[in-house]
User: Fold this.
Amino acid sequence: MAKQKPRTLAGFMELLPAQQQQMERIMETLRRTYSLYGFTPLDTPIIEDAQVLLAKGGGETEKQIYRFQKGDSDLALRFDLTVPLAKYVALHYGQLSFPFRRYQIGKVYRGERPQKGRYREFYQADIDIIGDGKLDIANEAEIPSIIYQTFSQLGLKRFQIRVNNRKILNGFYEMLGLTDQSQDVMRTVDKLDKIGPDAVRDILVDDLGVAADKAGEVLDFIAIKGDTSAVLAALEGYRGRSQVFDQGLDELTAVTKYLSAFGVPEEAFAVDLTIARGLDYYTGTVYETTLLDHPEVGSVCSGGRYDNLAGYYTDKPLPGVGISIGLTRLFYVLDDQKMLNPASPTAPAEVLVIPMSAGQQGYAISVATRLRGQGIRTQLYTEQKKFKAKISYAAKLGIPYAMFLGEDEEKAGVMSLKDLAKGEQVTVSFDEAVGIIKGYLAEMEQIPSVLG
Amino acid sequence: MAKQKPRTLAGFMELLPAQQQQMERIMETLRRTYSLYGFTPLDTPIIEDAQVLLAKGGGETEKQIYRFQKGDSDLALRFDLTVPLAKYVALHYGQLSFPFRRYQIGKVYRGERPQKGRYREFYQADIDIIGDGKLDIANEAEIPSIIYQTFSQLGLKRFQIRVNNRKILNGFYEMLGLTDQSQDVMRTVDKLDKIGPDAVRDILVDDLGVAADKAGEVLDFIAIKGDTSAVLAALEGYRGRSQVFDQGLDELTAVTKYLSAFGVPEEAFAVDLTIARGLDYYTGTVYETTLLDHPEVGSVCSGGRYDNLAGYYTDKPLPGVGISIGLTRLFYVLDDQKMLNPASPTAPAEVLVIPMSAGQQGYAISVATRLRGQGIRTQLYTEQKKFKAKISYAAKLGIPYAMFLGEDEEKAGVMSLKDLAKGEQVTVSFDEAVGIIKGYLAEMEQIPSVLG
Assistant:
């Protein structure tokens, strides 16, 4: 028979088993942490009606979308989890209770040009809190505190959640009479890190026609840096010149105050006035999260407050706040930067149960069944291979214990348990074996997935 | 702005939050049970190269497939998890250890005509054990024991795993000289339950030209029923007439013997000689699982032993054994038959923390943070609503406890904890509150997802 060469499409992540175990552990941490904060899991279809999915329209996205016909239907694959959330809330509005808190971890699709670390199929892990008409400012502090908790649980240490408020930016540009140009100005200011302040000033003045003194004010403003209290103090100096600005400053002050009540240490967050977020629907607090040792990666977790989640589906005002982790990309970065903890267990089982000959098959099966009853992940090895091949199988998979069951063990109702890392072997009762393996498990639980 | 009517496509399951919690709990049970048996989780792309995915060809499947162009690429959505597994094993062969045991829970796509209980996007939950050239018969007993354990963990009681062996069927038809017609005969025999033995005999004789005495033997054979030892004893009567049959009988005898060592009680399985499974690649043991009180639903979990997983990708012989739960359909059936346990918790949190006024916001945040530190799922309610609205929010979501934090509570460092089901309220210390809620959690852990 002619063979088809097996291959996986470029831009689609497919992990080997050990890596996949790491990924699963990270996902499990996300699910557990999101649940701790009272978010309910949601699952929406990957395929949606293209008209529904693209109701908002929008240039870049539409070009990248996977869209196709099936029969008479015009279909598209979701490109984020926000539009499906908007659809979900608008569609099931009457059956939901607000504030509606959901998390969703799912694959999304964008037909980008494949390149290193960029994927066409990738996981997003989103949390959002949606209010019915109103939403308290405390939620805007809770969201980054969840991200702090999530990243800490993974083992990450050197990260920073950067916070800003769109009202402060909008109010500031209002003060300068630059409201109409604010999008262009912000896009220019965004290049600060890459091109430096002088080049930014030149573009503002020469290309955008901003008066020189106003351009100077813009550069002074985005140069405000320091710890939270210093930045807030500097911002107080602008108070009274714009209602919008003042409201933004009140919100930012409240958010930073609550953050510490939420247990987020000062060094894990910073007010950063250069953060604006591209999406035009953010209206209040905005977030970005950077790995301090890898600034080149950019933000690994972003989001913010919006006033109108589902305006293209419903007249109901649905304000919300949310944040999204680009999980596939984050995993790629952690792996690429050697930050995945090599000590984190990746084996499919804690113990490999090996009958020494066909005569012990029944005994081995019943011991394996009892181990599983104790919650111990157990693999049974019944293949007729050489002893060495069996041990090498366990070693290759990183299974920490091998259990040998021969005629003597069966007669005495005991088991020979070998710690494959230490090379030590003991003959013990079932209960003793369980105790040893559970001790190992307790140690492993302390090992974080990621090296921070 | 003109509104787009939000909708979800027909044939795509989208659950409300409480149902989704049930589904998540079921998935978590599957992941945990599969892991206990030493299966490693796998995740493969939903989109594959159409040439790769359809390498095997095949009529029915190809018609139902979602296939489309993106740029120059001919793409298709996976329609099961078996073909992606074959691709994965062939592609990564050199980096895998065999026997390779993987589980995968993921969405697959078939453009079937949507009808009640049939989905175009649905989850499959698969386990497979792949050998490199050989695979021990014990694996064919382990697979149904995992299904027994999984269903039992869910709470299901009245189900039966039915087992047969293709070699027994093939050997039997060989004895009768009906090998060339065996596919047609088996297809006819499959209709037994629907049309009765006389109609089956008529088709065999009139349409397929089977001699009357042989048709009688076929009907006698598939009428063999009873407990395992009775069926095996009846089958022994055919021994010595076909090597293939004898091998199949040896295998079936071994499988049924091991099943009890694996802890599967006699009443949970049966040998059923009418089971053949449609797919032509099964070569040994085959399985179907039926809900005893809902035979009309058909098999909710099927699979079997195959000799050649990836013959269209590689020359390497890769025998295996696997089974698949059609999870979305199973969930639909459980819901439709009112078998989802209404006592199973569906709330997004164990406790709703409510500051009585804005002054207690900080206290409420720090109490919520401490509760989460104790592993208690906690939702913070900071909206400025009437007291009644806050309580009704908790009740609607099924959150079992509300915690009220007023000025008095803050001063004394205590909390008022209300059991919303019983209507009882107590004022307690933080540790006491944690104790009460953890007591509730321990009770909830005993509650199965499903009513068996």
